[in-house]
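Onboarding guide, step 5: your first structure request.
Type a short instruction followed by the sequence, for example:

Predict the 3D structure of this protein.
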Amino acid sequence: MKALVTGGAGFIGSHVVDRLLEEGYEVTAVDNLSEGHLENVAHLKGDKRFRFVKLDLKDAKATEKAVAGNDVIFHMAAQANIRKSIVDHRGDLDNNLIPMISLLDGMIKHKVNDMIFASSSAVYGEAPVVPTPEDYLSKQTSLYGASKLAAEAWSNAYSQFSPIRVWSFRFANVVGERCRRGVIWDFVHKLQKNPKELEILGNGKQSKEYLYVKDCVEGMMVGWQKTTGPVEAFNLGQPRQTLVDEVADIVVQEMRLDRVLRKYTGGEHGWIGDNKLVELSLEKMKKIGWVPGVSSHEAISKTARWILSNS
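The system replies with structure tokens like these:
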């Protein structure tokens, strides 16, 4: 069996590559390296079952060609910087939706039926219904979330006139080894520069879920292998929410600091498009046998320790 992993040198994508190799797949990872890092797959050098190709998914012809010969596509690549979208209004369209269309066209052309898609809990916007189930739709609060929802909708429509099957997984905040962005990364680096003071965006009371990357990959494998499609959507998150202030507590503890002054920028949101509360319903995944094995607090600790060891 052969698998194509887009964003395969990225944080989550590289862990997907590892898992597929463990499952016995031959894996091709494609990445334009704008966010991915070759060191994430450096440990696979010499593995004849693994191949890396530098590829920008905005190149439609090359993207369609990359699909050929595979049995399944794990589409992990994305422009995922919500704040960047405020300035670059076409970025999410060009990097998230258009590549999805090219991949789907390639799947039809080369008779590849299965896609596992890395969507996001951002598709729910600021959902007033919590825990938020998969069938809930709210107004969009970010161009990133809108692009993920559009990509889901586009792939779902393709399943109406082709044999394509798509599993969309809506992640909470995914953290763990190889994570080089997000609140934990920011806190560690801010405190390395100034161990006496920590700037926190918003009021520190934003409530989120932090999912360990290996639990995330396991969730995708379980959802794909235990359901039949043609269109499936699943939340992947934690049963317990964690405040941003609690994230700061854990990072400060891991760095063995004391008497850190916290400076808040104020407001309920850290930035435009940030959601103050993310609480996902996990009932669909529980019914097919998946629950996260690592708590949010342990996932945050593991991430902080990795960042400190790799700064």
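Each response can be followed by summary notes, for example: The longest helix spans residues 91-110.
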